[in-house]
Each structure stands twice: as C-alpha cells, then as structure tokens.
Amino acid sequence: MKTLLLLLALALPSLAGDRVAFADDAYSLEFAQGWTKAKAPTADAEFARESPDKAVIIAVNCDDIPEGAEADLDAMAKASAESYAKGIRFKGEAMISDGTLDGCKARFITLAPQNADEAPIGMFAVFVDAGEHLVRITATMNPQLDKETKDACLAIVKSFRREDTGENEAR
C-alpha cells in the first residue's frame, strides 16, 4: 500500500500543467498537459501554445504602459474587436465584457461564429491592465471546439498571475 501511494505521489507532478512565466517573470499562465509550443502569429508575441487537438493557438503579448499613463481598456477592446472581426471576416457582433484577473482590470472580447458563413475561425482575447504592463492573451480557434478544449482555454485565462505583486500593482 505504501508503495502504491509513493508511486501515485511521484506521478502526480507529471500530470500537472506547465506554468509559463513571461515579461521577465512578472506574470504567468498555466497550460494543461499536452499544450505545446507553437509559432506565434505575430513577431512581437512573448510566446504561443497550441492545444493537443490543434484547434487553438494562444499567443501572449506584453507591452509597457508608460509611467503616468493609463491603459484605456474600453477603447482598446472596442478597436481590437473591430480589427479582429475584419481580420477573420467575422460577420457577427463581438461580445465585450469587463472583469478582473488576479486583481487586475481586464476586458474580454469574444468573436464566436455560429457557423462557417459568419467566419472561418473564432477568436477570444483578453486585455489585462497589470499596472506597469498591458498583457494581451489572444486565442485563435476552430469555431467547433469540444467542451474539453473550451474548458482548458478558460482555465488558462483564469490562471493568469502576477508573480511579483510588490511591483506590479493593479490599477
């Protein structure tokens, strides 16, 4: 019995996800087991990961917010939603909502086509005002995602953490 418990204890860490730090280790996201490194869709991305079923690519960008300036999340979300919709030829209306991630103000953008006539792919983006930085998490996806992959994407976004909360205070 002790041997079985020891083997289970040793196996559990290998089942855990991969926490990826970025922006000089100021922030991190956790990816479930099986998500692999991917080529980022833009040259300025910190990194990108692809789902095990190859249906989603998540890219992360981090931009400095100049001292004394404030990120206008509402304006950025609106302009980005329009740009994303044009880029993927989305014919529906983007959903924009507000919220928080690890105590930071955030805006969530969803472009979810209901069928191939609305757009060939879907997008989900999050803008996070992390004080000194604007973090952008963008997912490009097959619109017909299964529940497991959708849940994994949501878990990744919810896993956002400020690693150095002393310097990176939320606004």
Report what the structure shows:
The chain has helices at residues 2-15, 73-87, 147-158; strands spanning 18-22, 27-31, 36-37, 47-50, 56-64, 95-101, 104-111, 122-129, 133-141, 161-162. The chain has 171 residues and is an alpha+beta fold. Strands 3-4-5-9-8-7-6 form a seven-stranded antiparallel beta sheet, sandwiched between helices. Strands 1-2-10 form a three-stranded antiparallel beta sheet. It starts with a helix and ends in a 9-residue tail after the last strand.
Order of helices and strands: HEEEEEHEEEEHE
What is Rg? 17 Å
Oligomer: single chain
Going across the major beta sheet, what is the strand order?
Answer: 3-4-5-9-8-7-6
End-to-end distance? 51 Å
Strand residue percentage:
25-35%
**Main pleated-sheet profile:** 7 strands, antiparallel
Structure summary, number of beta strands? 10
Low-confidence stretches: 1-15, 167-171
Give a brief outline of the structure.
By secondary structure, this protein is of the alpha+beta class.
Topology readout:
Layout: H1 2-15, E1 18-22, E2 27-31, E3 36-37, E4 47-50, E5 56-64, H2 73-87, E6 95-101, E7 104-111, E8 122-129, E9 133-141, H3 147-158, E10 161-162
Antiparallel strand pairs: 1-2, 2-10, 3-4, 4-5, 5-9, 6-7, 7-8, 8-9
